[in-house]
Write a structure and sequence with these properties.
By secondary structure, the chain is α/β, with parallel strands linked by helices. It is 49% helix and 21% strand. It has helices at residues 42-60, 76-94, 105-112, 120-130, 140-164, and strands spanning 2-7, 12-20, 26-35, 64-68, 99-103.
């Protein structure tokens, strides 16, 4: 299974693709960051996210998409912008016919690091280790997106094992 993880943000949206084979081995496919210019209007930034993610989906052909769920935000304006970016990311995936799973930040960190309140540096380190990368991803947003994809693959594998025992 190949999963596209998406880490939405108002200025940077990370994406990462991870593949898992039948032996449960994880393999890095690609990652990147969509840099959104604050000088552009919000509709133009949202369009950039949509078009870039559609392009990534068309190029790498993931089987499913995983995205970070909305978390508590103090700043209402930032939360609204984040929600709009998440909506556009979901639209890009669903318009390509892909299933979308959402995960809470605590679940993602627990799946990758083993501790739900892990620091970003710990997530980057574990993503690098789990995917056997020579160096951590340059962007923390791309590393987070890879972590989201890993979380989904671990969760899907657990679900399959549980269903097999029923």
């Amino acid at each position: 299974m190949r999963v596209l993880g998406i880490d939405c943000g108002g200025e940077f949206t990370g994406y990462g693709l991870v593949e898992q084979n039948q032996n449960d081995d994880l393999r890095y496919v690609a990652c990147g960051t969509i840099k959104l210019s604050t000088r552009e209007t919000l509709p133009k930034r949202l369009h950039q996210v949509y078009e870039t993610l559609r392009s990534v989906i068309n190029e790498f052909r993931p089987d499913e998409v995983a995205i970070e769920d909305v978390f508590y935000a103090v700043n209402v304006k930032s939360a609204l912008k984040l929600g709009q970016v998440r909506g556009v990311a979901m639209l890009a995936a669903s318009s390509c016919g892909l299933a979308i799973a959402e995960y809470a930040p605590l679940s993602i960190k627990s799946a990758v690091v083993g501790y739900g309140k892990a620091e970003k540096s710990q997530v980057q380190h574990m993503v690098t280790t789990l995917l056997r990368l020579n160096a951590p991803p340059k962007s923390p947003d791309a590393a987070d997106a890879l972590a989201i994809a890993i979380c989904h693959l671990h969760t899907a594998a657990t679900r399959q094992r549980q269903e097999a025992t029923r």
